[in-house]
Design a protein that fits this description.
Blueprint: H1 14-28, H2 35-42, H3 46-49, H4 56-68, H5 81-98, H6 102-107, H7 114-129, H8 134-155, H9 172-181, H10 185-214
Helix pairs in contact: 1-4, 5-8, 5-10, 7-8, 8-10
Amino acid sequence: MADRGRPRRPVLGVELIAREALAMIDADGAAVFSLPRLAARLGVRTASLYNHLDGRSAVIEAVRRLVVEEMDVSAFAMLPWPDALAAWARSYRNAFARHPHAIELLATTTISSPATLAMYEAVVTALARGGWPREHLVTVLTTVESFLLGSALDLVAPPLMIDPSDHAPDVPVLADALRATHVGGKAARADEAFEEGLDALLRGLWGQLEERRRLPRDPRPQA
C-alpha cells in the first residue's frame, strides 16, 4: 500500500531547483534556459520558484554553486601557489567540461554565491601568501580563469574545428600541422594543449613574480 503521507515528487527547494536548472542547461543549452521552462520541468508555477530564490540571477548563482562544488581548492592549504593553482586548474577544467553550456550563463552573471566567493578567497589567499602584491591578485586570478574556461570549451568543441579542405595548398604549414595533430585524436590534442598551456602560464606568472621581487620597492607607505 502506498504511503499517503509521502509526497509524489520531491519537495521544492533551493537544492532541487538548482539541480534541475543545471540538468536543463546541460541538456538544452543556455540559450533556452528560462524560469517558465524550469518551472514546467519541475511541475510548478513560475511564481513558486520565487518562494525559494529571488529571480533568474539567484537561480543561476545556485547553479554556479553546484559547479563550484565539483572543484577542489584543498591544495591551496597545503602546496606552494604554483602547484596549488595547477591542481585547482585541472579540477576547474573538468568541472566545466561536464557542464559546458553553463559557461555562457555563469560568465555573464555577477558572482555573489558564498561557495564561489570562498573558492576565490582560497585562491587569492594562496597567491598573497606566495608573495603576489594585493593589486595584482585579481589580475592573476582572472588570467588563469580565462585560460581555464577556454580549455573547458575546447574539450567539448567539434573534433574538427579548423578545416582547410580545398584551401590546403594555400595554407600548407597549417594543413600539415593539423594532419599531425589529428593523429592522436581530439581528446589527446585537447589534453596536450591544456597541459602545455597551463605549464606556460604558470612559468610566466612565476617569472613575473620573480621579476617584481627584483624591482626596487616604493619607499612610500601603502594606503
